[in-house]
Amino acid sequence: MPRLDARLKLVASEIRGQIHADIGSDHGHLLAALLASGRIQRGIAVENKPQPHRNSSATLERLNADIRLGDGLDVIHENEIDSLSICGMGGQSIVRILCEHPNRLPEQLVLQPNKAIDLVRQWARSNGYWLTDEKSTTGTRRFEVLVLARSTSNPDPVYQQLVDAGLDEPMGLMFGPWFLLRNDNELLQRLSEEQRYLQTKQNLTPSSRKRLDLIQRLMSSDHFLSR
């Protein structure tokens, strides 16, 4: 049975359900581990290129899994799955996939964007999903995992908790409301280092300027200073 790296172990720890789909499964290792551990009863691996499709087919052979060739949710049926994971893509790609077939999305989403994570949080904020938890790996490269659950009630209460703590929604969308509420030491250290780096730059892009402004406001907030 394939062994998962720290990133996929973190994703797997959040998944439980009958039928789970993993989009961009690559080698199918996540689904194989979920099936072996009994966290899911059936898996669906979705690949949009022939070689990853062959890789997943080899890994998941003789397991209770379908391996489908297609783009995102194009090959998933409405009400077919209980949970969905998308890992290792940029936030823009993840949001595109989620937006294309909203009627096919399940109750639970476990997402691991490699960049532009704020776009995924904003999508959830605007599309009826609550951010129920955020977790991250430790080490040189930090991977963040977002756990989302569909809700018929808006807005997501975690952002009000953020405001009650003296922070604000833009900070939460950019850096993660749960990380900020928990005073994630590693994240705050990284942001402090990023602040020093950006302050040395003379010509910042608009996105870098926005990020620096948010970091500066966060670092000067009572929530941060009272740690």
From TrEMBL:
Keywords noted in UniProt: Methyltransferase, Transferase
Keyword Transferase: yes
Molecular function terms, GO-annotated: tRNA (adenine(22)-N1)-methyltransferase activity
Methyltransferase in keyword set: yes
Gene Ontology process terms (BP): methylation
A Pfam family this chain is assigned to: Methyltransf_18
Protein name as it appears in the record: SAM-dependent methyltransferase
Lineage: Bacteria, Pseudomonadati, Planctomycetota, Planctomycetia, Pirellulales
